[in-house]
Amino acid sequence: MDRPATLDPKSGFCTETSIFHSKRAPISLPTTPNLDIFTFVSTRVAVSTSTNIALIDSLTGESLSYPQLWTSVASVASYLVDVHNIKKGDVVLILSPNSILFPVVSFAVMSIGAVLTTTNPLNTAGEISKQISDSKPSLAFTVSLLVPKLCAATSTFPVVLLDRAPPTHPRVVSSVFDIIKDGKGKIHRGLVKSSAVVTQNDTASLLYSSGTTGVSKGVIATHRNFIAMVEIVTRRFKLDTSLSSEKEIFICTVPMFHIYGLAAFATGLLATGATVVVVSKFEMGDLMSAIATYKATYFPLVPPILIAMIQHAGTIKKNHNLSSLKKVLSGGAPLSKEIIQGFTKEYPTVEILQGYGLTETTGMGSSTDSKEESERYGTAGLLSPNTEARIVDPDTFASLPVNKTGELWLRGSFVMKGYFGNPEATKATLDSNGWLRTGDLCYFDEDGYLFVVDRLKELIKYKGYQVPPAELEALLLTHPEITDAAVIPFPDLDAGQIPMAYVVRKKGSELMGEAIMEFVGKQVAPYKRIRRVAFVQDVPKNASGKILRKDLINLSISKL
């Protein structure tokens, strides 16, 4: 990527084009047009004859070495083609918690040119039905406990199990364990043999955006998007594929059905020869035990887990040896100064790294890649390699310079192809020059660090003033009797909208709403004051830790 002469090396901003350029060293992407993500990953890592462990089930200890992973992928891919006639462009669904077989199926589907779609196991049958109606999968993989929910959502396609439970439903036709055991995979130099020619521009996955501000939409990601993501992830963690190097061990509790987990664990990190310890269900004690047992070095997580590690640090350090842990990687929402300092105080030998990305950007966008970068409190980091950005005034569409807040637009090889079957939404989000409108209000400082102010559509409009919920939430979390909080717009006849807080009190606290409003009111401008408070047991969040404000908005309106 050419860097213009008018580029400020300190901020990465070009005064001639009003474009921010990444300050990271550029990455090289393969130019071969006929290349799928599985072929790219499996030939990139030099472990085809090694005994390196790729995946471990933290609960059972069951594992797959890299050679077993490659042959398992080939077996499942051959099964899809030979038994179910799955063709290039057909959609295959995974409905499952984290599993060591999740990457196997993901790679198998994409290797033959089919399209992977995933959904949250916590979704209702009705929610799953909507996604199925939109994406129209030809086959589904799930676990036995979720078969009734899946079959209640649809009755049109066969189901393959991801566990060893005996089939109890007529729609269940096989299990991945049986497919792998039969060993019918056709391997050639570690690659799946298929009659389909898969190109980098072909669709690899159809993931549904979180829908935090509207109806969930199917995001079309290409093999090129995933390949760019793998190169960025590998560069960020400074991982290589040589057999002589020390292998890192990652804990995977982030859901693989979400772009965060799918990008990092089901595809990206397996290009490095690292070991991924898969945690199928979040429980703090089991999670800490897995870190200690398998001597994990990296722990990608979401902010609620990091906060819980701070709050329960005494118990955790007493019962678990976390001395192997080198870095935690937080995504989903920016971390405040108080949270970063609180974690560093409790776990002084562990670095905190942060990242910003969207489903629409294959999880990429910006990151902090060192302790020093993360200590620029509140930042989402520097732009990912090969990335361009603009800060755009939402009203005038003028491009803005350093330290000016506007909507973040991104351009890079990881940006989606568009929204599935929704040209109107695609046109509103992705322009003809490849710029993606993120919907996030942001600014870049004079050193090129990105700061996320809030979601554009989530700003509270109080008497014409714009109130960012994230600012008030960060303030609420500094209260000693509050463990979590979310702020939403509440309709008001005079003001239009007023800030309303949903608050989770610490156990045993009798904190009242009036005290909370007074606490905030002393620290913010009058128009930012919280004017309504409700108490909840939990703040609803999606898989990446983002607050589901629309759920709380609906709850508040239902109380009117």
Automatic annotation (TrEMBL):
This is 4-coumarate--CoA ligase. Its EC number is 6.2.1.12. It is an enzyme of class 6 (ligase). Keywords: ATP-binding, Ligase, Membrane, Nucleotide-binding, Transmembrane, Transmembrane helix. The chain crosses the membrane at residues 257-279. CDD domains: 4CL. Belongs to the ATP-dependent AMP-binding enzyme family. It catalyses: (E)-4-coumarate + ATP + CoA = (E)-4-coumaroyl-CoA + AMP + diphosphate. Signal peptide: none annotated. GO terms for cellular component: peroxisome. Pfam families: AMP-binding, AMP-binding_C. It comes from the Eukaryota. Residues 471-546 form the AMP-binding enzyme C-terminal domain.
